[in-house]
Specification:
The chain is of the alpha+beta class. 16% of the residues lie in helices and 34% in strands. The chain has an 8-stranded mixed β-sheet, with helices on both faces. A 4-stranded antiparallel β-sheet has the order 1-2-3-4, with no helix packed on it. The chain has a 4-stranded antiparallel β-sheet with strand order 5-6-7-8, with no helix packed on it. This is Dipeptidyl aminopeptidase/acylaminoacyl peptidase.
Length: 646
């Protein structure tokens, strides 16, 4: 769990025509205020989402995933530019492309059962038919990479034991899986060396600590890499196979990149920055080392030429960042995504020899004017105890001191997640309709050092909630915000924080929007998916063990048992296939709050899991949220909804 959004053109239009003279500073503010066109949720959700980008063997085209049909399907796009060609036409479960086969036009993709997270790996055969390569009922599979000889691939599966992911190798001739590593001790499986001699394993210890091991598949000997308790993560083996690259925060607040010499056992620091290094890998032929850095809630990417040990120049964009890169097998081409908080990411290709680049997609709905979208601003404020809390602020363009707007405190998933400077159609929809959004990274969020990360351990619903309340106070102090109209919204752990806010600080927020949030920690922690077994104990160390004396505190912080304290309007949204936060969590909190005589709306999707993926469901969900906010937050008075009205 550590690792889970503008207003009507009212009196503002006329403010410059009033005869009474305004103070100079107010005149200037009004002059720069923009009234954007207002868009429907359907228009906003028609911003296309594209991911992936596997090069075909001759670099002529790429394989991607797109939700342009309403749900995710596979498409190909020419590398020289052109229309996307649909490869799959699923109208129920979403399909996510994995990769072209290394030597032919077969394709791998993954698909689950409408959000149940039981992913299987499929192949699209040369004749267009599809084959489930991991058909074991109830077992989930995850692609791990291609073998060096391009004749097989590796994947993990819990088909042997639902609690543990084993490593398998599957050949391309008869698709027969071979067990490579039997995982009987609850390790997380990492990288496999190209010569298939070494495998990295990790053991989760607690909130932000994990041991890293190098396992010799032939001798079965295991070597512990880290010397002290710290967060360690395998990244890649060097091109020669002599060294293991890994990230660690040993002796430091932030993770940095190290390398471990397999023969000597010596370690050496490779890259250190002022922020966490999220990951690092070598391209296929070892020419480049790609490193991702979490710089103040956005990706910074460095591509180092291994021979010169210098970073290459990447394409530059105004007000956008390169968020993701990958390379063709011959390393002549790089595909990348570029976007920002105010613009969805587009796919580009870049020739590393000629420096020519080509934009392959234009995902912003042409009905939407780009300058109507809101760019996020990183802000910081002091919490109740002096701890500095980072947050991401989306201010509606029509908002100013003379046209105050309502606002929402947005809480990310997790615990331990992070609100990032990424594009969100939902956030843009809310700001477009006149709601400011402050995405709070309360204590316990990742990306700001391990001390900050661990501050909420065994303290959820207390200091992390107070950080959110202080976020509300920060909003209330802004001249463009109506201080009496501030709500709270969040999904998963953020949904829990919404319910905790309405329960334990009932007078602080005017409304709550709970997106599939935990309401009963005792049940949630007892019913985690079996494949979370490898980090179950560390999860209990952070949140509490429901089978121990921690159960008393867990009940105290579970909103379900305190619904009598809720006094403000609430809307709850839930997917019935959710394996993380069960539907019963939302069923019961809705029933409990209704007994308290509080206006409650409940929106349930039978074909969604932990989050809403299908466009028609997103449109329904987010339009219902806006209707709810318009009724209970934006307006001065509203008639409560009676049971059964919605």
């Amino acid at each position: 769990m550590k690792k889970l959004f503008a207003c009507f053109a009212i009196a503002l239009i006329w403010s410059c025509t009033e005869k009474k003279e305004k103070p100079k500073e107010v005149q200037e503010e009004v002059a720069i205020t923009k009234i954007p066109d207002q868009y429907t949720i359907k228009q906003m959700m028609d911003n296309e989402a594209i991911s992936g980008g596997s090069f075909y063997r001759d670099n002529s085209k790429l394989l991607v995933s797109s939700n342009r049909s309403g749900i995710y399907n596979m498409y190909t796009v020419p590398a020289k530019g052109g229309e996307l060609t649909p490869i799959t036409q699923s109208d129920s479960a979403s399909i996510f492309a994995i990769s072209y086969f290394p030597r032919d036009e077969r394709m791998l993709f993954s698909m689950d059962g409408n959000g149940d997270e039981i992913y299987h790996i499929y192949v699209r055969n040369l004749n267009g038919s599809h084959t489930d390569l991991t058909p074991d009922k109830g077992a989930r599979a995850s692609f791990q990479g291609w073998a060096e000889d391009d004749q097989s691939f590796f994947f993990t599966s819990n088909k042997r034991d639902a609690k543990y992911m084993d490593l398998y190798q599957m050949d391309f001739l008869n698709y027969s899986p071979k067990l490579i590593f039997k995982n009987e001790d609850g390790y997380d499986i990492g990288n496999l060396s190209k010569d298939q001699k070494y495998l990295t394993l990790a053991k989760s210890l607690n909130t932000n600590d994990s041991d890293l091991y190098l396992f010799d598949l032939s001798t079965k000997k295991k070597i512990k890499i880290n010397k002290t308790q710290s967060a360690n993560s395998s990244q890649d083996f060097s091109p020669s196979g002599d060294e293991l690259y890994y990230t660690t925060d040993e002796g430091n607040e932030f993770s940095y990149l190290m390398k471990y010499n397999i023969a000597t056992g010596n370690t050496e620091k490779v890259i250190e920055r002022d922020w966490d290094i999220l990951g690092s890998y070598f391209t296929d032929n070892g020419t480049y080392l790609v490193t991702y850095i979490n710089e103040d809630a956005k990706n910074t990417i460095e591509v180092m030429n291994v021979a010169t040990m210098e970073n290459i120049d990447l394409p530059a964009f105004d007000a956008m960042e390169i968020t993701n890169v990958d390379f063709s097998k011959d390393e002549k081409w790089m595909r990348f995504y570029a976007g920002g908080s105010h613009t969805p990411s587009n796919l580009f290709v870049y020739n590393l020899e000629t420096k020519a680049q080509k934009q392959l997609t234009d995902v912003l709905n042409p009905e939407i004017k780009a300058d109507d979208l809101v760019a996020a601003e990183v802000v910081r404020y002091k919490s109740f105890d002096g701890v500095e809390i980072p947050a991401i602020y989306y201010k509606p363009q029509q908002a100013n001191a003379n046209a105050k707007v309502p606002a929402l405190v947005w809480v990310h998933g997790g615990p331990g997640g992070q609100s990032r400077q990424n594009f969100s159609s939902f956030i843009q929809y809310l700001t477009n309709h006149g709601y400011a959004v402050l995405a709070v990274n309360n204590r316990g969020s990742s990306g700001y050092g391990k001390t900050f990360y661990q501050m909420d351990d065994l303290n959820h619903g207390d200091k992390d909630l107070k950080d959110c309340v202080e976020g509300k106070n920060w909003l209330a102090a802004q001249p463009e915000i109506d201080a009496d109209k501030i709500g709270i919204i969040g999904g998963s752990y953020g949904g829990y924080m919404t319910m905790a806010a309405l329960t334990y600080t009932p007078e602080e927020f005017a409304v709550g929007v709970n997106l599939f949030g935990v309401t009963n920690w005792l049940r949630t922690l007892k019913s985690i998916p079996p494949w979370w077994e490898s980090f179950r104990e560390s999860l209990y160390l952070e949140l509490g063990d429901p089978y121990s004396s921690d159960s008393v505190r867990l009940k105290e912080i579970s909103p379900l048992f305190h619904t009598d304290k809720v006094t403000k309007p609430l809307i709850v949204l839930q997917g019935s296939q959710d394996p993380r936060v069960l539907q019963v969590e939302s069923d019961e909190i809705v029933a409990g709050v209704k007994k308290n005589g509080v206006p409650v709306e409940y929106v349930l999707f039978e074909d969604e899991g932990h989050g809403f993926v299908k466009k028609e469901n997103q449109i329904e969900a987010y339009s219902r949220v806006l209707d709810f906010l318009d009724l209970y937050l934006k307006k001065d008075k509203a008639t409560p909804i009676k049971d059964g009205d919605k």
